[in-house]
Amino acid sequence: MTKAKVIGLGHYVPERVVTNFDLEKVMDTSDSWIRERTGIAERRYFDPEKDTVANMAAKASRDAAEQAGIDISEIEFIVFATITPDYFFPGSGVLLQRELGLEGIGALDIRNACSGFIYALSIAEQYIKANTYRTVLVIGAEIQSSALEMNDRGRGVSVIFADGAGAAIVQAEDNEQIEGILSTHLHADGRFAEELYVKDPGSSRKHRLTKEMIDEVGIRAHMNGNMVFKHAVVKFQEVINEALEANNLEIGDIDLLIPHQANLRISQFVQKQLGLGDDQVFNNIMRYGNTTAASIPIAMSEAWQKAVLKPGDLLCIAAFGSGFTWASSLIKF
């Protein structure tokens, strides 16, 4: 049976570093307050003169192709996860296709927010197992800083989110001795959609965008932090255990867990509840903030570059976020 294997990882983060001390200058917050509640010390913001969601994704994609040892032209399909596309439409998938010179191949955009990369990876896995494509590019990329409200009213959200892109190249593998992606597990519960969302602009209003919407911050992210934390710490554990049970494995079999980089406190709580050691969990939210769909592939790429993730390792990735959606995957490298 054809299997799906991750053969290359890459990432790109903008050059501009924004520290907690920088945020102190524009809102009533402090380095200690942000670190205590989120674990974040600094994050990256895009340069509007040079960075787009699509071209950041292209840089991450080229990085992944080089690491995989393949030519970009070998990519047959793109699955692009983002909630911050360059245009309202079309999606950023076709813009990435243009950036990479891959005229004619299919490009699929998905909007599953924090769980987006794992949803995208699952789609790639199924296309490969169905023998539809043999080489698929999976992307998570976001520019969120341009939508943040940089004042006291918006500080609860604005100290968390940031920009970046991560890529994975997934390829068909016919060797039965190579395991690749063992399984993916996807969930959602729309009852909590409004606990973490951006309301406007939306199509179901008489006027899609008005001055009142802007003044009432409908175009800004709303997050019920307590509700998100309460559900995240439960669903993270459930979906990780689901993946292990599906493959007849135990928590001790995991060489590395990379959780979605939402909040270091959530990651640390889940780590403690699962009984994982510090060497079994990789976090980089301290340096990059929460980059939503980009957070897991950026962390995977960085962990690989730092040799924290190694050939032969069993990697578990897990995410929870807006929707609410949550997901996990087990991958043998």
User: Could you tell me the radius of gyration in angstroms?
Assistant: 19 Å
Averaging pLDDT over every residue, what do you get?
A: 96
Number of helical regions: 11
Helical percentage:
25-40%
Structural class: alpha/beta
Order of helices and strands: EEHHEHEHEHEHEEEHEHEHHHEE
Oligomeric state of the chains? single chain
Content of β-strand: 15-25%
Strand elements, count:
13
Distance between the termini: 18 Å
User: Low-confidence segments, ≥5 residues, pLDDT <50?
Assistant: none
Q: Indicate the overall shape.
A: globular
Q: Biggest sheet: strands, sense, closure?
A: 5 strands, mixed
How does this model look, in words?
This protein has helices at 20-24, 31-38, 53-68, 92-100, 116-129, 155-158, 211-215, 225-246, 264-274, 285-288, 295-305; strands at residues 3-12, 16-19, 42-45, 77-81, 106-110, 135-142, 164-173, 180-188, 196-197, 222-223, 256-259, 314-321, 325-332. It is an alpha/beta fold. The strands form 4 sheets. It has a 5-stranded mixed sheet with strand order 1-7-6-4-5, with helices on both faces. Strand 4, helix 4 and strand 5 (106-110) form a beta-alpha-beta unit. Helix 8 packs across helix 9 (264-274). It is globular and about 60 Å long. The two termini are 18 Å apart. The mean pLDDT is 96.
